[in-house]
Amino acid sequence: MTSFRDRVRGVVISTALGDAMGAPIEKLTYGEIKSKYGRVESLITRWHKMDLHADARLGRVRGDGIVTDDTLMTIALMNVYLTEGRHLDAYDMGNEFVKEIAFRKTFVPELNQETFIIDRLFYPEKYIFMRHVLANCDPREGGIGNMVNCGAAMYIAPIGIVNAGHPKAAYDEAILFAMGHQSSYGLEAAGVLAACVAKAFELGVTVDDIVDTAISLAKDGTKAAIHELTEAARKLRQERDDMDKVINVFQSIMMKYSPMGDDVSRHIDKVGIPSHHYTPSRLWSIEELPMALAFMVLNEGEYYRSILDGVNSGRDTDSIGVMIGVILGAMYGSEVIHKEDIEQLNKVNRLDLCTIADRFSEVAAKIIEDDLRINEARLSMISS
């Protein structure tokens, strides 16, 4: 039986693996990836922007296992739990989490230097600093007005870990915490992904069990997108080698719930032109989570194939890889991950992922034990 500690390792290492697998091809379309790379199947992949001048790539480097903000923010959230030793809410977003991303330096691999995580963050993640530090907002209202995206969901897996085996509690805590960062379907995705990770810790759990949990808790467009995409994935299992067909079906369905399609970049010609991109809606969903669950269903939980299909599907490739990785990593533990991949991730990112995971698993186990003691006391109260 895979231990709790090893499952936590599976989540943490899979965050970095999915992130680093998708990072070199992020924002490319499925067709562009197929044309430029054929199929990405290794961490040792050259970033599609590496030949550009450093200014054009904002001084960043990627490829060969380098992780992005998905991994750095996941570790930052784990550090908040290490500091607080308890469940979190939006006030912790506005306090310790802000300190982690904006006031405490760490090695940022893309910039190849010790600096603040915020120096690397995308605008909707920098919004955390603006709202909580500069605008002094009510922490529970921190996500209001932000660009709606997958930014909270991409690092929310630790909340699933501290609520392992209790998906509804994971959903609730993720919503309470991430409302300090996101709103609408961006917030919803964070809650659902945390619930999926919590469910994945249950013994004997299947991918179908995890999808059922996601659908039971998800609301509005997120619920509909997950249901429709995973149903399509089941029907496509016999044709999963025909990736052109799979991607066409998946992305055609997602167009109902995410109107951007391949139009994911901002440029001067779009300034001042209204669109539905990244705006709140009860009818829409982020793309990454439903796609991640669909690739897991398509491949019946096969670890590497699910991640690789996800990152090769295009667009937000690293976050799709992360979301597949954290769920399947919780299911299987770290033994499913190739040792050479772990070594490469640690080397290029100056990390010790097993040590990071083990330190967090101790805190998570204590939080779970505290919950169980409280529940035992409540049971005694009503039975006396």
From TrEMBL:
Binding site for Mg(2+): 68-70, 316, 318-319
This protein's UniProt keywords: Coiled coil, Hydrolase, Magnesium, Metal-binding
Pfam families xref list: ADP_ribosyl_GH
Transmembrane segments: none
Highest taxon, organism lineage: Bacteria
Coiled-coil boundaries: 219-246
Free-text cofactor note: Binds 2 magnesium ions per subunit.
UniProt cross-references to InterPro entries, sorted A to Z: ADP-ribosylglycohydrolase (IPR050792), Ribosyl_crysJ1 (IPR005502), Ribosyl_crysJ1_sf (IPR036705)
Signal peptide: none
UniProt entry tagged with the keyword Secreted: no
Cofactor(s) recorded in Swiss-Prot or TrEMBL: Mg(2+)
Protein name in UniProt: ADP-ribosylglycohydrolase
